[in-house]
Amino acid sequence: MVGRRAGTAYRETGPPAEEAAVPAPRAAQRPAPRSASRPDRRRPGAARAAARRRGNRLSVLSAALGLPLLGAVAGELTGSGGGPLFAVGAVLGSGLAAALCTRPGRWWVVTAAPPVVLAARAATAYLADRDAHQGKALASAAVRWVVEAFPVMGAAVATALLVVAVRAVLARRARPGRNAQQDRRATRRRSTGTPDPNPHPASTPPPSPTPRSHRG
């Protein structure tokens, strides 16, 4: 009787809590990468900067190459050859390229002016009359083209150097002007008693508070 009662109680209550089935652990969920959840805010700015650089390079190349070539073509069409139209195109091209180029590109603009001017003059003169520029005639014509383009090359280099020097002087004057403007603002605040909105510059961190010793 006692055994039957014990078996009946075991069936009714079920197995002990320790023998209960343990639930299987859930699969670990990997967090989504940041690139998918948060868009990169630096991409639009970088794209605009890259587009600006490409546009600047295209402008410099168009001025340095296009204007001398355009002046040489105009000179051949009007019959002046390496005359004033060619000189004006070469000088304007080198000056405009020096004004638009970046600071590292100034050296390239100045050094590229003579070969660009000479190549524009020689190419347009040769293509204007190919039949006459054959054999020995081509050699004598090349010497003539160099002689005609030499003053224009010098004027183009001088113009580029002048523009570069002017840009350097203006950049130097702009820096003291900013400092003087900041000094005038600080003097005006002190005279009127207006507090400085930025008392601690970005380069100098604010002083940390000194800890006080507590006496018991």
What string, H for helix and E for strand, traces the elements in order? HHHHHH
- Which descriptor suits the 3D outline? elongated
List the uncertain runs. Answer: none
Structural class call reads: mainly alpha
Radius of gyration: 40 Å
Quick one: how many beta strands? 0
> Helical content, roughly?
55-70%
Mean pLDDT: 76
Number of helices: 6
**Portion in strands:** under 5%
Q: For the report, how would you describe the main beta sheet?
A: none
- Measured between the Cα atoms of the first and last residue, the distance is 78 Å
Polypeptide structure, described:
The protein has 216 residues and is mostly helical. The chain has a domain of 113 residues. The chain is built from six helices and no strands. Helix 5 packs antiparallel against helix 6. The radius of gyration is 40 Å and the shape is elongated. The model has no long low-confidence stretch (mean pLDDT 76).
